[in-house]
Amino acid sequence: MVTVAAGEPMNIGMIGVGMIGGVLTRKLVGLGHQVFVANSRGPGSLGDFARETGAHPVSVREAAKAGEVVVITIPQKAVPNLPEDLMAETPEGTVIIDTGNYYPVQRDGRIAELEQGLTESEWVQKHVKRPVIKVFNSIYFVSLRDRGTPAGTPNRVALPISGDDARAKSVVMALVDSLGFDPVDNGTLKDSWRQQPGTSIYCEDLPAAEVKRRLGEMGTVQTPQHRASAHAKRDLPW
């Protein structure tokens, strides 16, 4: 059983080193964590990135069992390409983070379960067969890189966090705070639709009070109208 001591450096597996994964790796290494990075092309393709950041290049399977936290930060369409038994050797209690978003037109193609209302991270959770926490999907990578500030800073940018495991969520909330953002509890993984692309808090860089207000405005039930409105506004933020 993996345990996480508050404020202590962690071993973190990072599956994907694109825009979000790259920023997270740099910031987490800067905070003293050991980060084990992986991509679909293998560790040999990550030499330059590892030398630049101080991260450790490994295989996807090695990243999945690397430590206390594993971050999955890959395009939605790539999730089914992960090994079916990816988490077979991942220790019990490892915190699994999903940062992904679904862009059916620009990148991912249509995924039937998501079109019918399953949340993006519930879908990821089905594939990896472990509980996941949704976070870092609702912020543009430039803001993640540049807008972190110390706790207590007025109008500090807040990030919503969704998940069903209270212990894992508490670990993630502390991690978000250490990266310079106010964590806001967005409820269960089923509630994570409220932070998906097309919603009123997506890539808006809002303070915690406004994030909470807008989450409240959205309510607790994702209606067909919510889905239609969000799908109409979905777009890659760059």
Automatic annotation (TrEMBL):
Pfam families: F420_oxidored. Keywords: Oxidoreductase. Residues 219-238 are annotated as: Disordered. The keyword tRNA-binding does not apply. GO terms for molecular function: oxidoreductase activity. InterPro entries: NAD(P)-bd_dom_sf, P5C_Rdtase_cat_N, STEAP_metalloreductase. Residues 12-102 form the Pyrroline-5-carboxylate reductase catalytic N-terminal domain. This is NADP oxidoreductase, coenzyme f420-dependent. The lineage of its organism: Bacteria, Pseudomonadati, Myxococcota, Myxococcia, Myxococcales.
